[in-house]
């Protein structure tokens, strides 16, 4: 297993003004609307079948048994054990996975924004692409799904989830932005799907709420 240190990403990108995004190919297996309305929670992909070079992705683990995050080819699987969310660096099967291969990133310095989606719309052209947000937000509320099909209806799939919050802690957030993916890999009321992980990689989950505070952040976008 390759070692991966999240802060290295900051050093590996050029801090420059982004005018347009690289035309990376965003791929997805599974779909939120099929999971929510048809109960399709079986595995749609095994991350071991993908080329891990320059790979970034996120999604829900097989049977909604946790969250998946892939940063530069390293797979993180967050799952609930005895009411505590744990993180393994491992290969994983996913019910839903959106992913892309990104060779190089450009960086925007951003601060004091309230909504990531609106920030992207303001600074970047339309399209579907991954992004990274690196910094120490005032608050990040997150969850790790822990669905039990034997005891819970799919409409209440978040009932057994682990919920946590990071406050003023160094984190990396991987997100995928699109205005055309509602019901596929973004929810019907959002243009982004984001997962957060601590700088040391000890905790990870799906972003529910983000309050940036007055800190400065690095917004990384695929380089053109």
Structure description:
By secondary structure, the protein is mostly beta strands. It is built from 3 helices and 16 strands. The protein has a 9-stranded mixed β-sheet with strand order 1-9-16-10-13-14-15-11-12, with helices on one face. A hairpin with a 5-residue loop joins β4 and β5. The longest helix is centred in the middle third of the chain and has 8 residues. It is globular and about 45 Å long.
Give the gist of this structure.
It contains three helices and 16 strands. The chain has helices at residues 8-11, 32-38, 116-123; strands spanning 14-15, 27-29, 45-46, 55-61, 67-71, 74-81, 84-89, 93-101, 105-111, 129-135, 139-144, 162-166, 171-177, 192-198, 204-211, 216-222. The two termini are 30 Å apart.
């Amino acid at each position: 297993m390759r070692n991966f240190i999240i802060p290295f990403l900051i050093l590996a990108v050029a801090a420059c003004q982004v005018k347009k995004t690289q035309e990376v190919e965003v791929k997805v297996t599974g779909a939120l609307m099929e999971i929510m309305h048809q109960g399709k929670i079986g595995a749609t992909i095994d991350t071991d079948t993908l080329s891990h070079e320059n790979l970034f992705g996120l999604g829900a683990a097989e049977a909604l048994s946790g969250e998946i995050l892939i940063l530069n080819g390293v797979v993180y699987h967050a799952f609930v054990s005895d009411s505590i969310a744990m993180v393994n660096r491992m290969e994983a099967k996913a019910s839903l996975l959106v992913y892309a291969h990104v060779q190089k990133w450009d960086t925007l310095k951003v601060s004091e924004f309230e909504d990531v989606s609106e920030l992207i719309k303001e600074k970047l052209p339309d399209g579907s692409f991954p992004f990274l947000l690196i910094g120490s937000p005032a608050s990040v509320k997150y969850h790790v799904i822990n669905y039990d099909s034997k005891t819970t209806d799919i409409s209440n799939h978040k009932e057994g989830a682990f919920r946590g919050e990071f406050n003023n802690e160094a984190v990396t957030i991987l997100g995928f932005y699109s205005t055309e993916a509602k019901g596929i890999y973004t929810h019907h009321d959002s243009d982004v799907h984001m997962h957060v992980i601590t700088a040391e990689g000890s905790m990870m989950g799906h972003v529910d709420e983000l309050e940036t505070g007055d800190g400065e952040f690095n917004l990384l976008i695929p380089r053109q």
